[in-house]
Amino acid sequence: NVVFLQKLRNDRNLEIKYLRNLIDSLNICLIALRNPCMGRLTSCLVKNLEKGKLVMRTESFSSRHVLQALPKLPVPNLKDTLDRYLSCMKHLLTEEQFNKTQNIVTQFGAPGGVGELLQSKLTDRSENMANWVYDYWLNDMYLNNRLALPVNSSPAMVFPQQNFKAPIDSLRFAAHLISGVLEYKTHLDDRNLPADYARGQLAGTRLCMEQYYRLFTSYRLPGPERDTLVAQESSVMPEPEHIIVACKNQFFVLDVMINFRQLNQRDLLTQLEKIVKMADNEEEQLPPIGLLTSDGRTEWAESRSVLMRESTNRDSLDMIERCLCLVCLDDASGPELSDTTRAMLMLHGGGLTKNGGNRWYDKPMQFIVGADGCCGVVCEHSAFEGIVLVQCTEYLLKCMIGSPSKLVRAASVSELPAPRRLRWKCTPEIHKLITSAADKLQRMVKNLDMNVHKFHDYGKEFIKKQKMSPDAYIQVALQLGFYRCHGRPVSTYESASLRRFQQGRVDNIRSATPEAFAFVKAMTEGKNSTSVEKMELLKGAITAQTSYTRLAITGMAIDNHLLGLRELAHEMKMGKLEMFKDEAYLISNQFILSTSQVPTTVEMFCCYGPVVPNGYGACYNPQSDHIIFSVSSFHNSQQTCSAEFVKCLVQGLRDIRDLCNKCNADCAATEERKGQTQEPKKEVRLLLANRP
Ligand code: COA
What we know:
Its EC number is 2.3.1.6. Helix content is about 45%, strand content about 10%.
């Protein structure tokens, strides 16, 4: 090893990568190096320490580097969860449904009953695992889901519209983006990304960083019943990395390291130009294989096994599965490029007639660079949450924004081997499968009812001035908008980050609280309620929402807990328990309103599809003086209409603002009156004091 290391010395990055992988692959690490790279190995050593491996430290690796491991996700108390479940559901059920559910829940939670047994097993599980819910949650939320990834699962970030004056501009943009990815990947490889700390509610806590390390190293492999999230194994001697570039539905391997040298932006531009030329060669065109990845997961798993029969296809699949990410060079999509159209194009590519085949949905990161300036990133969601995606994307955009001079001007002159086109051997069976996938994607394209709305009346600063949590306020407004639109409250999902804990992902804030219901009823039906009464109800709704948020981010929400109990019962072969067969449990998991806050500090926004056929996806990005809403639903549902929902939401936001302003004005007037009535008293006091 020592001899080998000396050989690597002239490439510091390679040396670090080698050392890191070496340490990872050993069972016991005896680090006795006096190596200048030691600082850059810190987090790798910490990770191994946390895994319980013995690490002998050198002077350059001091104890200050050893961070305290994050706490484990707690298991909430059974009774608390069951009580909370009933209170979350009562107003969403009929009286008859609720009475039935109450009996089932009481029986489940009875002393010595099945609930207690499962709870004690769950506690054991939590003691033996870093995160007791992680696998259950990942399977339930993503890997078991058989629906196609575009729209149903993969969210997208939509970049600001780019103004490409000539075709080469989009390639320059792509080259710049790739070079940012490579820079970011170096930080990831060195494990030296600065740790994130929580902001907003319960600010200041250190957050789990694991999701970042999956950005460019994982792959969602389709399976007949369940997909697998594959993490790339770190090998002692890593292979040179590559990116897959999609252009005109063709896939090309772009090696980013050639002859031990990482390509610079000029090189990248040269290679991208070659790819565009190769893609234009009509004689070489291969069928749009990428469409298969937009199919239902079981269908794609079947098509993949058909593809795998040919060694050419196996090699091509292997290259895609091991790439860092995809860069999709899209053709222009049409004249109208509103925020809404751009969001739709990000989510589904516009189907076969546009760029729907220019994708590979299993890969976590697909950067889209449209010739018409429609750019963004589409993500396979099982590996990480939107917040991590935003952090990475902002890093990349910040490298690029405001620095046109930094954009590469001329292509490299160095002789680089041409990128390789991935070959596919397509039997008639595969052609049929592609046609079937294309038809389904086309239906999805037609069905998506998207509405991106920039609400400019006010933003989170106004809300903070009311001494209210902006997130809670927006959630209450969403409840009001929904009620106004549909006349009933529904199970609502709001993602709450669990990154305060080891391997933390998310749990659910059930925003359709009874308090929010009371408020929305007063606002829509309570003609006789006074502003003061409405204001009291608003404050109650905000307080309830804020408390639920705090519960959720500290691991005390109910959804993951109930899921854990359910999955344990399944593992213990208890059959389907009444508790989880109950209609109320099914209703509780039908998230007709699926919401998420995805804030950004760079101009861009996130969007995703609904999670049920008759529901809405509602993503929001609160800024100081405006809020961006991306609302989605399906045209074929008789019950939903994104434009109508947005209209009601906007009216709700205005009504709440007016209510706050009226109550503030009334308060100020009362204060003033109080002041005026007190004035004479002061005068009287003065007169009395001046009396001889
Ligand atoms: N008065 C004045 N200001 C207040 C306030 C009050 N009563 N309550 C909160 N604020 C301030 C906060 O201090 C914070 O200030 P900052 O902008 O300076 O940091 C700001 O308002 C925002 O706080 P809040 O609106 O309460 O929300 P939050 O930032 O705590 O976010 C969640 C709440 C649930 C969204 C967040 O905890 C979370 O989990 N985010 C992850 C969501 C996610 O995973 N999304 C992606 C899914 S793919």
